Amino acid sequence: MTILEALRTPALFGRHFDGPSWEPWRAFLAALFGLPLSAAQLAVYRRCTGRESARMHPVPREAWVIAGRRGGKSRIAALVAVWLATKNYDGVLAPGERGTLPIIAADRRQARSVLRYVNGLLDGSPVLSQLVLNRTTESVELANRIVIEVHTGSFRSIRGYTVIAAVLDEVAFYRSDDSAAPDRELVAALRPAMATVPGALLLAISSPYARRGVLWDAYRRHFGQESDVLVWQAPTAVMNPGIPEALVRAAYEEDEASAAAEYGAEFRRDLEAFVTREALEACIIPGRLELPPMTGVRYRAFVDPSGGSRDAMTLAIGHAEGRVIVVDAVRERRPPFSPEHVVAEFAALLKAYRTTVVTGDRYAGEWPRERFREHGIAYEPAEDAKSALYGAALPIVNSGRLELLDLPRLHAQLLGLERRTARGGRDSIDHAPGAHDDLANAVAGVVASLAACPGGEAPVLISQRPSAFGDVVEREPIDWAVERYYGGESAVG
User: What is the residue range of 214's domain?
Assistant: First the structure.
């Protein structure tokens, strides 16, 4: 029995994939498993693969599906997973060995959504339901010694398994907090794990995003090419003809660039990497984790506050050596944490570097100013938003006038930043969806503030005293302070 015949069998999948709206996906499944294509399916195949001939390897070793939102991707991924997991692998698995079919996503919650479809297909079939031996919230164990289980998008989590097939869900949105290129590392780890299983299939299925990562690489190398790697690209309306046209039209009217990716399955052209890997690596001092405070050095600091429940709270301290900016120390406290305790810790570090002024996010409200003041630190709201801070730091990175600490999480966050062109032509720089930039924000803030000071020297707090007008602080160099603060509404006198 082929998978297309199984779709027509009520005791298997027929009840779940009935109707003409699934015909485009039947064309995909025929191509995926090397089955003959009808004339209508061949037309869909040519449109979605860029290939003229349907002659290909009987079963591609890899399939990369780039499809619009609400097109049925997750249900098809679950179908392929169940179809492959319920086969007989007695000739492949050694005595006592179990095969694994991982469902991989950026986080466990997202991966579990595909697993729910898997459970629905198994429970909906009187034949396949008999294969289920055990279930947990993150796995299904079958009688044929195959386990379908949830994994996160980390190359470390997949090592040591015998992988009969793998499903990568929404691979375009894998985060990059723990590695500079986690998607490439993950695929590189999966391929050896599948090497001993004949016909093992890597199925990556996702809406597109920026023109980078393994999904973009697969599209660029294999779309329209005759190879044993199948790349299928299709808008939502092609794979799900029942999608309301008004919904898609409204999305295009609101944000054409976003809708072209979400529903048109087009990689976004308004997004690009903020900094290149080569430029960043040239700024990293290998093995340097932190520099101790030095006498005669004027330090500057930037903090990215957090309430302690969602985002990390970070601090960066740096100084200038001529035209070169040096990052001396970085701190990150991930949630959950007590903001009061972290402020006390950061304040102690600031005093160790002989600085009693810290700049921070102006949108954090009054609480960081009050908390830092309790520890003798003046909190100054940043004049610029973080996008402008990133923009100011970029020339320093590209010119090699920055010395960065050797901290992989910081490097990954900087490499994960995106430059986005808005409708009005104005650029904004921020982290990718689902990612974080707390460390990058603090470092960019201190780099930008040091770069803005004449001669690269940061002003130093001489004294801070209360007055009827609020805290009054004195700084040097005097010419810098006069130029910035004289005649303005400020707590700096």
Answer: 3-269
